[in-house]
Specification:
The chain contains seven helices and six strands, in the order H-H-E-H-H-E-H-E-H-E-E-E-H. By secondary structure, the protein is an alpha/beta fold. It has one domain: Rossmann fold. A six-stranded mixed beta sheet has the order 1-3-2-4-5-6, with helices on both faces. Helix 5 crosses helix 7. The longest helix has 19 residues. The model has no long low-confidence stretch (mean pLDDT 91).
Length: 251
């Protein structure tokens, strides 16, 4: 069948990536099929930002996996406020501060996991539980984990007051990353030593694009636990802690 579409010589590479390459052309324009695919990808990314996280369902799934959970909320009262006021997404509301203060124990914990919806609740609902299970499977037996804290309308820095109030030596923030046109469900991980209000991004380590099509759960957990182990040993994270997980086995 004759077609007016001019193939791209890189077409074979499309089988190895979800990136938008080798789309072909019709004259000076994209083929209609690729225009439709772009529109669909854009709609998926937009929906990922606005879709609310079902925090109750996530907590029930975590509890079924034998995790204790707590729910908190930022000072951003709704999604519109969250998107317009990033600063409010970094702070806990008063009710959450009171609940965490009441739940704190004198001994604290070694690692506090916080799960935040961020800019893609789709990423959290799909990947948070299997990643957390992989973390537990690989973690040293002597590590003490705090209850899983599920935060709504959350930015990365909301992990700092959570970890501080619960007396954590180190906080691990799992959060939905800003969606891309081929990755509406990418999960990010941020690790912060001695969490407290006022920490800056240079004091965190980041692991990005956690999902089966990107960095798989097992590899992400290995990187995370290596950084946590070294962070506890050196008592630092961020620019002072370089990721050497590809060259060393977790002890």
């Amino acid at each position: 069948m004759k077609t007016n579409i001019t193939a791209d010589p890189w077409s074979e590479l499309r089988s190895h990536t979800q990136a938008r390459i080798a789309l072909g052309r019709t004259g000076v324009s994209l083929p209609t099929q690729e225009v439709l695919r772009f529109g669909f990808a854009h709609a998926m990314a937009r929906d990922a930002v606005h879709l609310p996280l079902d925090a109750d369902a996530l907590c029930m799934a975590l509890q079924a996996a034998a995790w204790t959970t707590l729910q908190v909320h930022s000072e951003a009262v709704d999604r519109s406020t969250y998107l317009l006021r990033p600063d409010l997404g970094r702070r806990l509301n008063e009710a959450s501060i009171a609940a965490l203060t009441q739940s704190a124990t004198p001994t604290g914990c070694d690692v506090q996991i916080v799960v935040g919806d961020g800019l893609s609740s789709l990423a959290v609902s799909r990947h948070a539980l299997p990643l957390i299970e992989e973390i537990r499977a690989q973690a040293p037996a002597q590590w003490r984990f705090g209850p899983i804290v599920v935060a709504r309308q959350a930015r990365v820095a909301i992990g700092d007051p959570v970890g501080e109030l619960l007396g954590a030596r180190l906080v691990v923030m799992l959060i939905g990353e800003r969606p891309g046109l081929s990755s509406p469900d990418s999960l990010g991980i941020y690790i912060t030593w001695a969490p407290r209000v006022g920490r800056i991004d240079a004091e965190r380590n980041c692991i990005s694009n956690v999902r089966p099509e990107g960095l798989g759960y097992a590899r992400a957990a290995h990187k995370l636990l290596w950084l946590c182990s070294e962070g506890q040993r050196l008592q630092v994270t961020g620019v002072q802690l370089k990721d050497g997980s590809d060259f060393a086995e977790l002890s």
